[in-house]
């Protein structure tokens, strides 16, 4: 049972790291702050820039 929990935790951590790597250089088009996975983001269909939900 412990091995399954450990494996599941490692998979979640790997997904989190991949998400951070993929978006690590993404800046908010409004405020210029870096991407953070714990915040809501919106991509503009026209300019394809990313924005914090709180900035739009």
From TrEMBL:
<keyword id="KW-0863">Zinc-finger</keyword>
<dbReference type="InterPro" id="IPR013083">
    <property type="entry name" value="Znf_RING/FYVE/PHD"/>
</dbReference>
<comment type="function">
    <text>Histone-binding component that specifically recognizes H3 tails trimethylated on 'Lys-4' (H3K4me3), which mark transcription start sites of virtually all active genes.</text>
</comment>
<dbReference type="GO" id="GO:0000976">
    <property type="term" value="F:transcription cis-regulatory region binding"/>
</dbReference>
<dbReference type="Pfam" id="PF00628">
    <property type="entry name" value="PHD"/>
</dbReference>
<dbReference type="GO" id="GO:0006355">
    <property type="term" value="P:regulation of DNA-templated transcription"/>
</dbReference>
<keyword id="KW-0804">Transcription</keyword>
<protein>
    <recommendedName>
        <fullName>PHD finger protein ALFIN-LIKE</fullName>
    </recommendedName>
</protein>
<dbReference type="GO" id="GO:0006325">
    <property type="term" value="P:chromatin organization"/>
</dbReference>
<dbReference type="GO" id="GO:0042393">
    <property type="term" value="F:histone binding"/>
</dbReference>
<keyword id="KW-0479">Metal-binding</keyword>
<dbReference type="InterPro" id="IPR045104">
    <property type="entry name" value="Alfin"/>
</dbReference>
<keyword id="KW-0805">Transcription regulation</keyword>
<dbReference type="GO" id="GO:0008270">
    <property type="term" value="F:zinc ion binding"/>
</dbReference>
<dbReference type="InterPro" id="IPR011011">
    <property type="entry name" value="Znf_FYVE_PHD"/>
</dbReference>
<comment type="similarity">
    <text>Belongs to the Alfin family.</text>
</comment>
<keyword id="KW-0156">Chromatin regulator</keyword>
<comment type="subunit">
    <text>Interacts with H3K4me3 and to a lesser extent with H3K4me2.</text>
</comment>
<feature type="domain" description="PHD-type">
    <location>
        <begin position="28"/>
        <end position="56"/>
    </location>
</feature>
<dbReference type="InterPro" id="IPR019787">
    <property type="entry name" value="Znf_PHD-finger"/>
</dbReference>
<dbReference type="GO" id="GO:0003712">
    <property type="term" value="F:transcription coregulator activity"/>
</dbReference>
<dbReference type="GO" id="GO:0005634">
    <property type="term" value="C:nucleus"/>
</dbReference>
<keyword id="KW-0539">Nucleus</keyword>
<keyword id="KW-0862">Zinc</keyword>
């Amino acid at each position: 049972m412990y091995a399954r929990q450990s494996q599941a935790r490692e998979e979640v951590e790997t997904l989190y790291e991949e998400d951070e790597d993929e978006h690590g250089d993404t800046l908010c088009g409004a405020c210029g702050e870096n991407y953070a996975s714990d915040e809501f983001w919106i991509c503009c269909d026209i300019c394809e820039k990313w924005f914090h939900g709180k900035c739009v």
